[in-house]
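Okay, is this right?
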Amino acid sequence: MLGALREGTQPVPYLFLKLYPSLKLNETEAMLIIQLMAFLDKDKLEFPTIEQIQGRMAATPEQVIKTLQKLLKSGWISIDEQIDLVSGVQSERYNLDGVYRKLAEAWADRERRAAEQDKQAAAETDAKDIFSIFEKEFGRPLTPMELETIAGWLDQDSYKQELILAALKEAVFAGKVHFRYIDRILLEWSRNRIYSVEQAKEHAQRFRTGR
């Protein structure tokens, strides 16, 4: 028994063990891939027979054949043909590059979705912040209609948050802290193609100096 244990272990990518269910692989398909890894790495056997593969799995030869066909068709594995330059004998080998490519794609997709979720969470935090700033300037909680107005500026009109806050600042400066006045400021800026706080400051300065 100790001799058998000394044969060592077969490293399997942790990402594979973690993601194979979400990549639509069943247990038989995942185990067949792992067995091919072991054949290539430990046994130095590049093209094991159906019987050799089946001998290490709780599956019938027919199931092994069907699983291999599915993995080949879906691009998880491929078969390379090679010719010995000396003897001219042609041989075949299983290629597992598809496994690592699919794992890399899955990892990249997970990272992309995580980044999008972080961005969405940040946007939701920003939205809460803008509501808090308005409530602070108005000195009271906002009404449902006022909350909807701000949400409309952000979502429907696509005004940048910093531009909305700049319009609020202008309204405070003018002593006209109400939503209709802020909306008129934003509409005027939009008509004048003002899309940044810097442009808004320049526009306000020109207006105040009469230029």
Notes: DSSP finds ten helices and two strands in the chain. The first helix runs from residue 2 to 5.
